[in-house]
């Protein structure tokens, strides 16, 4: 579990994060949602140690990251996997070399074992055939899967994904969501996903933190969201007719008025 307590962050005169407290639940897909500029990325960068908050605590399973020694922080960083926006693969390396990279940097394994581990996670993300390909030779969805494989190759306890669906078609987005969800459950990872994708909110959002203008406006599960009366949250989430319909369907499903496997859902 990651607990954020009373996080404040300003850049110069500009206050970006205002007293944010929230929880990223263990073994769950935690989503940070909110309009552009609401502070999702700054908050996430604070959580992974790329920005230092002005005030507050960031507690990784009872250990406050902000009061750790350099060595402790280094150890924690090795338990954090990151999937960056745009995947951030090395163009000059093959898929397999990209995935082996964290092992080359941070493990003492032999080449044979590093390769074995990389192959294992590439199988996990269904990229058996792409080991020797270069990033330029594979699709956007495949690049995301390589990014995910690289993010989990060191068996992280915590995984951060920055807009994993950006630039993907809806079908591929669903596959990537499902993969993130499966990996989170199988490896019991505490996963945090920044997303604009409302389908993801409904499909994989075990726990959701909604940011509005640098404040945490709302926090709860994807079931709670259906019944939320928070106007800002509702305006944000159900801005489209499609999502309004989805909300009504889910409410009917929850009340048992329609079957869970109703094909309209
Ligand atoms: N390094 C920085 N220096 C100064 N201001 C910054 C810096 N990084 C972010 N900001 C400002 O912080 C605010 C929040 O930005 P942030 O990137 O966290 O928003 P976001 O919710 O992630 O948006 P998006 O969905 O567009 O990525 C913005 O006004 C942005 O300009």
UniProtKB/TrEMBL annotation:
UniProt keyword list: ATP-binding, Nucleotide-binding, Transport
One example GO MF annotation: ATP binding
Domain ABC transporter: 2-238
Annotated SUPFAM superfamilies: P-loop containing nucleoside triphosphate hydrolases
Key word Translocase present: no
Entry protein name: ATP-binding cassette domain-containing protein
């Amino acid at each position: 579990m990651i607990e954020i307590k009373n996080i404040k962050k300003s850049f110069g005169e500009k206050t970006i994060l205002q007293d944010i407290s929230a929880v990223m639940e263990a073994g769950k897909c935690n989503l940070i949602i909110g309009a552009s500029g609401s502070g999702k990325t700054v908050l996430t960068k604070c959580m992974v140690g790329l920005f230092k908050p002005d005030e507050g605590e960031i507690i990784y399973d009872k250990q406050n990251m902000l009061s750790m020694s350099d060595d402790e922080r280094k150890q924690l960083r090795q338990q954090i996997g990151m999937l960056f926006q745009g995947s951030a693969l090395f163009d000059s390396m093959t898929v397999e070399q990209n995935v082996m990279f964290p092992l080359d940097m941070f493990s003492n394994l032999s080449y044979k074992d590093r390769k074995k581990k990389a192959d294992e996670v590439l199988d996990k993300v269904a990229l058996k055939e792409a080991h020797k390909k270069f990033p330029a030779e594979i699709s956007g969805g495949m690049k995301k899967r390589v990014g995910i494989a690289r993010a989990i190759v060191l068996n992280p306890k915590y995984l951060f994904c920055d807009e994993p669906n950006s630039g993907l078609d809806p079908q591929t987005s669903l596959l990537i969501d499902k993969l993130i969800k499966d990996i989170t459950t199988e490896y019991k990872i505490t996963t945090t996903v920044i997303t604009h994708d409302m389908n993801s909110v409904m499909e994989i959002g075990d726990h959701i933190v909604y940011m509005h203008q640098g404040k945490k406006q709302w926090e709860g599960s994807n079931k709670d969201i259906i019944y939320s009366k928070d106007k800002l949250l509702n305006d944000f989430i159900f801005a489209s007719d499609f999502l309004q319909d989805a909300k009504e369907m889910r409410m009917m499903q929850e009340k048992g008025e329609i079957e869970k496997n109703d094909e309209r859902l």
